[in-house]
Give the backbone structure.
Amino acid sequence: MKSKRFRKTLYILLLSFAVVILAFASIYLINIYNIDRSYYQAYNAEGKVALRKFPYPYRAAMTICSDIDGTTTKEEFLEIQKFLNTKEETSMGEGVGLEIGNSFMMYAPPTCAFSYFSGNPGSAQIIGKFIKAGYIDFLHSYGEKDDFTRKDAIKAIEELNNNQYKVDVWVDHAKTPDNLGDDRTFGLGDHPGSIAYHSDLTLAYGIKFVWLGRVTTVIGQSVPITLKTFSSVYDSRHPVQSLINMGKEFAKNVLAVFGNKKYAMHKNYDLIRIAKLDDGQKAYEFLRFDNYWKGIATGATSKRLAYVISKQTLERLKKIGGYMVVYTHLGKNSDCSQVIAKETQIALRDLASEYERGNIYVTTTSKLLNYYLNHKYLNWSYETKGDEIIITISSVEDPVFGSFVPTIQHLQGITFYVPDKDKTRIYINNKEITNIQRNPPDYEQRESVTIWKREGKA
Ligand SMILES: [Zn+2]
């Protein structure tokens, strides 16, 4: 009798448990379904005239976002950039000629980074020159300065403004007081009550994009979530550790779906979200990628970048058509025999070949984020006039900094699929863009037109 009642209770308990699990699983799957549907809608290119996700002819887009700490001399910085940005002969052989940027700090001890106010002759000039050329495109916090106050931000911004040195990306550094992130990088820069408060001035200076410490091991952002999103974290060469990483990533995703704030960006793995700073201002927060098997913290070095941008990573990125901002420190190279680790030189050459073959669009962090944003909020329409397609771009409906009429500069890379590349015109409001690039069929067998203004190209 007793055992019968016990069995019944057990049965009811198990059944309730199963129902609860099933309910949670359903809620989770419905959320994922909605996320995936929103990506299909956002990047739907099925119409006769459609906005292509990436610039022609690329299938995916990425950048290497290298924090300057670890790069301690200007000579080292120049050699790294020469290898990345030119095809000239360097100490590591011919450069790869990619549009990969770098970062800077205003204040830093010489052991941390070569910096603007270092007093080291030439540093400020070099930083300025690279900012103007677009090859230094983000501020890696104001720097490493323990007694940082608002006055330091004022001094830095005055200097940058006086020289018209403009960057629009901010990346938090370690755990310095001027950071803008709270939960991972413990900053006070956006706390109005703090002596380190500066985010009102910093956003007014022109910062639009902020990185607040969030990193993912998932390859490729802004694509639908599938089982492979998580299973691709697994690496058979490091089964135990990579299984743990996979579990962690999935757990963050589940927590985010059920409302966890800290991991909110792991809910849909979009490249950018609108974030509210502590003082109420809004900015675009972006996610960075680092899947080093031993852990993110150890992976962001010159040597380990080779793993992070391995052939497998690039293959998957291409296959799913994702965006990606790769987190690293090119100057953390004390374990390398050359300025950039040998294995990473090889990986960068592979990346250059993907770029040259028209597979992966590689550009600076700022350009990638701006492209994503202008593409996402592009307000355009088309009409058919006779045998011509007339595309009219009227604005970029930027929900944070306000809508604006874009210039050709803002529209670099924007590509439309069209039925006939030679019978298409593009206008910004009433003004025709005269020098559009007309593209033969891409891998989808579709013709397109691109707004490009490259040096030396009409
Ligand atoms: Zn740093």
